[in-house]
Structure to design on (302 residues):
């Protein structure tokens, strides 16, 4: 609180008030503003609420504190040094910040008044993500096959499919992984629905977490499970997540599902750019897999 008061009263050095409290903090605010918009937040009501709160908190209250502090620091600088060489430069910087903040605030507030038909961009993102995975129901209606990448929205769409098909008893997984949070979401959905999980091809990374959610977990004779550490790929909208914290969450989940602690500890020691494919005997011994299947269940045969 003392720091905030000193800046507001202009008692901090002019250079600190300008470069730290105005320029650096302002850059951080501009960067953070992206997280209140799609694809980070997709619910229109939440976007609108977050935009209004962000606008008044940062573009009104915090910005007023920033500018007033710089102007008062400039006055203190003049009184103390008698030189005005840096004060006009600071004033020019304040004017520039007013322009940039106004542009940013205008763009943020525009999202509140976009017509419904302008949701095409969010819909395009949703379609693009949905094209990276497939959720199909077998002819008998007892099994779902999930293939492709664990993209944003896959948990939601799987939940809808299961809601519309209450007779589903199991899910076959075939995926190279994807979003950690979606893998965990699918795992919890599988666990809560008490579904069996099957892998006859390859199930890696986030997919293995989904597999662990199964009531009974079965691996085909040619199936493989690939484990490694978590990481965040550049450009993914999960930049605020901590991979180590995410690993700890799933470590707890693995153990709760009956997987031995020593297996869990080992799998998260594998570098993210490598994969560990345990042998079938290791998977059985660790409680990861309950059965090895020679053939697919009847409901898979078409």
């Amino acid at each position: 609180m003392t720091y905030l008061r000193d800046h507001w009263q202009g008692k901090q050095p002019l250079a600190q008030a300008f470069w730290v409290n105005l320029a650096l903090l302002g850059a951080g605010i501009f960067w953070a503003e992206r997280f209140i918009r799609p694809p980070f937040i997709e619910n229109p009501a939440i976007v609108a609420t977050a935009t209004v709160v962000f606008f008044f908190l940062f573009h009104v209250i915090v910005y007023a504190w920033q500018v007033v502090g710089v102007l008062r620091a400039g006055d203190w600088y003049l009184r103390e040094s008698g030189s005005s060489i840096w004060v006009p430069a600071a004033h020019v910087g304040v004017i520039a910040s007013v322009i940039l903040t106004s542009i940013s605030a205008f763009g943020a507030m525009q999202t509140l008044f976009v017509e419904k038909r302008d949701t095409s961009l969010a819909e395009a993102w949703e379609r693009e993500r949905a094209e990276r995975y497939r959720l199909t129901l077998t002819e008998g209606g007892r099994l779902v096959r999930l293939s492709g990448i664990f993209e944003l929205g896959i948990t939601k769409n799987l939940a809808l499919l299961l809601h519309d098909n209450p007779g589903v008893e199991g899910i076959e997984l075939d995926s190279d992984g994807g979003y950690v949070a979606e893998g965990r979401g699918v795992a919890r959905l599988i666990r809560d629905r008490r579904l069996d999980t099957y892998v006859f091809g390859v199930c890696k990374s986030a997919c293995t977490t989904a597999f662990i959610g199964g009531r009974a977990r079965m691996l085909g004779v040619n199936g493989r499970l690939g484990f490694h550490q978590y990481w965040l790929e550049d450009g993914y909208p999960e930049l605020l997540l901590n991979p180590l914290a995410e690993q700890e969450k799933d470590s707890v989940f693995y153990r709760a599902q009956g997987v031995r602690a020593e297996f869990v500890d080992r799998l998260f020691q594998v570098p993210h750019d490598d994969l560990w494919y345990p042998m079938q005997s290791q998977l059985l011994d660790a409680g990861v897999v309950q059965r090895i299947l020679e053939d697919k269940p009847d409901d898979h045969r078409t």
About this structure: The domain at 125-300 is CATH 3.90.226.10 (2-enoyl-CoA Hydratase; Chain A, domain 1).
